[in-house]
């Protein structure tokens, strides 16, 4: 983030008049009209971004835009999209990483913009929201068209299950009948909903309950379903196909790009917000996990719902379990060993045979088709995973073994041992090539974020997404800065005197946290590298101060953030979702405290594999992977402090390496240009003054 506006080559473009850019004038007229109608202020960065997006659409060239906090980037790209949609034959797609931003765009930004432009547009603009199929209730399942599993929660005990962002927080001990109560509430909701969208349900329900009323894309009967014409997911897809602007998420973009499945309407313009997350979100969406539990679940479903013999699958699961027994949870940089490869091959062959044998089935039974489809979808997943894992080396994919630990009352996080159940993971080493072909080819793509460049360079983001190297498409970049006066509004405190952080919080770090917390009289957002560190810090500091401290996991995230916002004396400690997902303008957040530089874990298999690949290519693996990852995360975390023009405060980084290590300057270059000091007394004095004003 810099005072001047700069392009991808570092050239100052502050003198460019937005109105002179090709295709920009009409979009700027819409923006200016909307800003005036909303009672907003003219922001030069916002106007330049609107003009550059309009120019990209006019010229058909990809664009990367870094827009700092306060720019109003959603409005800056929505205005040219609305103008473009007036004359376009195809819908434009806007994709976000998080549910929060998706909801903000659909529920606030678009309605406000269209209301402000009433009477200014040639025709109405239709906006639709589209999510993955499992986010919508299945009417056929609600009507009893799908058989129920003997153990409805079985799939959710598997290591690859990930909780929905809006899922109800699980309790330490589930009350008897709670699942049934949630399902009954879902059935009542389904009778009145027009969309079937899970995120309508407040308060949210558990993943186990939602599974009873939804299906995956592979479990869906498609046009063979008797409820096809009324299907919530199909209606959402139909609305998206008829809309001018479609709001979706990075995961659906990944499915479109990687799996060749048409889940989005045909489109030739895409805007990707929160683009710093795209590589990780796409990687996560296409990462596969194979475990003995997953194979056994598929075999059980096969036995129950088809006439196929599941014994070979069951035997393959046992052999996989034995082959993984005692193997360390780590990157398999040499691939599978002989026993592991043989077990996966056995599972592949058994799954292939089961798919062939289960094609028939007794269609006369009420549950026949749906049950067989469910079973076949699970076997199909196993087959695809086994084939991917066996071909990983040739297809430049990464393999690793994991054994998830768990949280135990009174003990905290307990690591798994080498004999605990294991999962085999497979993920692409790079998503660049596939994104180049599946996302950028034949489309105009705009990528934007508050933290898209690192050290004033877009090269890292462009390379990770397929925009660099031989055959890469042409693109432009621009940093439109931020309207905030960072050097006057905030202080960056580098705790240079502290020792290099170890695996656990040190007494010196805790004393530093206490001094900062008490000088600020609360109002502290503590961002930690791990859940254990956040909990340890909260527990230790609660014993040393009367100031209220909340910790992530003690309630819903939304509830904790609201409580933090409402009381200027309260502090909130947490991990990654707080680094990026908290917007608390005003005096409630006066201090952002970061315990350590957020490098990837040393045992992160994907980061390790990517670092080694960078080194083999002649680059610096640490700088291109670990340091770049940390720089983006630090920028996101530090960005939690100044959220409005009147905000004041301190960002304190309690990791001396940012001041003393050779890479420290690289990391500092990614941060907002706050006034920087290593003087503890100056910082404590500033916080004390803030606390009394």
Which descriptors would you attach to this protein?
eight-stranded mixed sheet; 693 residues; 20 strands; seven-stranded parallel sheet; alpha/beta; 26 helices
Outline the structure in words.
By secondary structure, this protein is α/β, with parallel strands linked by helices. It has an eight-stranded mixed sheet with strand order 1-13-2-12-6-3-5-4, sandwiched between helices. A hairpin with a 3-residue loop joins β9 and β10. α2 (44-59) runs parallel beside α3 (73-85), α9 (250-258) crosses α15 (432-440) and α18 packs parallel to α26 (680-691).
Strand order of the largest sheet: 1-13-2-12-6-3-5-4
Query: Given the structure, what is the number of helices?
Result: 26
Taken as a percent bin, the fraction of beta residues is 5-15%
Extract low-pLDDT stretches. Answer: 150-161, 169-174, 361-368
Largest sheet: 8 strands, mixed
Mean pLDDT: 89
Q: Helix content range of the residues, please?
A: 40-55%
As a whole number of angstroms, the C-alpha radius of gyration is 26 Å
Topology, number of strands:
20
* Head-to-tail CA distance between termini: 28 Å
Please state the structural category. Answer: alpha/beta
Shape assignment: globular
Summarize the structure.
The protein has 693 residues and is α/β, with parallel strands linked by helices.
Topology:
Blueprint: E1 6-7, H1 25-38, H2 44-59, E2 62-66, H3 73-85, E3 92-96, H4 99-116, E4 127-129, H5 139-142, H6 178-192, H7 207-211, H8 232-242, E5 245-249, H9 250-258, E6 269-272, H10 278-286, E7 288-291, H11 292-305, H12 311-324, H13 338-357, H14 368-390, E8 397-402, E9 406-408, E10 412-414, E11 423-428, H15 432-440, E12 444-449, H16 459-464, E13 475-479, H17 486-489, E14 490-494, H18 507-520, E15 524-527, H19 531-542, E16 549-551, H20 557-566, E17 571-574, H21 576-581, E18 591-594, H22 605-616, H23 621-638, E19 649-653, H24 657-660, H25 664-668, E20 675-677, H26 680-691
Parallel strand pairs: 2-12, 2-13, 3-5, 3-6, 4-5, 6-12, 14-19, 14-20, 15-17, 15-18, 16-17, 18-19
Antiparallel strand pairs: 1-13, 7-11, 8-11, 9-10
Helix pairs in contact: 1-2, 1-3, 1-4, 2-3, 3-4, 9-10, 9-15, 11-12, 11-14, 12-13, 13-14, 18-26, 22-23
